[in-house]
Amino acid sequence: MSVLTILHRNIKWRFHNAFTIVITILQPMLWLVLYSAIAGQTMQNTGIENYTAFILPGLMVLVSFGTCSSGGIMNYLMKADGSFYRVLIAPIRRSSIVLGQLLEAVLCSFLEVAIMVIVSLFFFVKIPISIPVVFYTVVLVFLSSFFMAGLCYGISLILPNEVMYETVMNAIVLPIFFLSTALFPANSITGALGVAINLNPFTHTMNALRSLILYGEIDIKQIILVMALFVVLGCISFGWAHSRLKKETNL
């Protein structure tokens, strides 16, 4: 019950600070509207018929990055008004506090992903609607967002202020995004760059989402491997965030 209490509290905070939703979705939306229109013309020779549809999975991951990162900003704002510490002294398990905030970031990610998908329909993106495609898409977005939310939560409890936090998050998110298949196919890329792209776990999330959304293909082996990878990563990030919160309590 305490998880739902924290979740409800954080949802209220999110909508009270609606600018966090606008800011986190603005950049991916600009990429979707402007970049796809400009770069799409140069990508026609690669065999990609609808470049907007091609980059949509990468932008879905990018918008979840921004949403989860704003979850870390939430900690700083709550510390400033004292509500962060009031929660800590409440008779609530530390794991419930972390889980409630992580789930809020995941739900907000779903909201912004849904908005992006709706906007993409105006750019002739045809998304195959079926129960398996929707189910696996939801699971992949949930797992990747949960991992990122835990990572952001833990980092926010290490760094002293928002400026350093945003700097570190940019240093993490930008390489993850650009060293992936978010904006271009990487089948022909070899060498160190190809290795870096393949080692990026979000590359495999984007590829799995692209197979589902762009082609309507369900590769069970690929999906299960990606899900298993992010279950492990999510457990690690949750455990780390939980340990950081316990140290915060001991200060």
3D structure, described in words:
By secondary structure, the protein is mainly alpha-helical. It has one domain (2-250). It has ten helices and no strands. The chain has helices spanning 2-16, 19-42, 51-81, 83-88, 94-121, 131-156, 162-178, 191-199, 201-213, 220-250. The model has no long low-confidence stretch (mean pLDDT 85).
Outline:
The chain has helices at 2-16, 19-42, 51-81, 83-88, 94-121, 131-156, 162-178, 191-199, 201-213, 220-250.
Task: Label this structure with key terms.
251 residues, 80% helix, 10 helices
Q: What is the secondary structure topology, with strand pairs?
A:
Layout: H1 2-16, H2 19-42, H3 51-81, H4 83-88, H5 94-121, H6 131-156, H7 162-178, H8 191-199, H9 201-213, H10 220-250
Helix pairs in contact: 1-5, 2-3, 2-5, 3-5, 3-6, 3-7, 3-9, 5-6, 5-10, 6-9, 6-10, 9-10
Q: How large is the count of helical segments?
A: 10
Q: C-alpha Rg, in Å? A: 18 Å
Q: State the secondary-structure class.
A: mainly alpha
What is the domain total for the residues?
A: 1
Biggest sheet features: none
Range of strand content: under 5%
Sequence of secondary-structure elements: HHHHHHHHHH
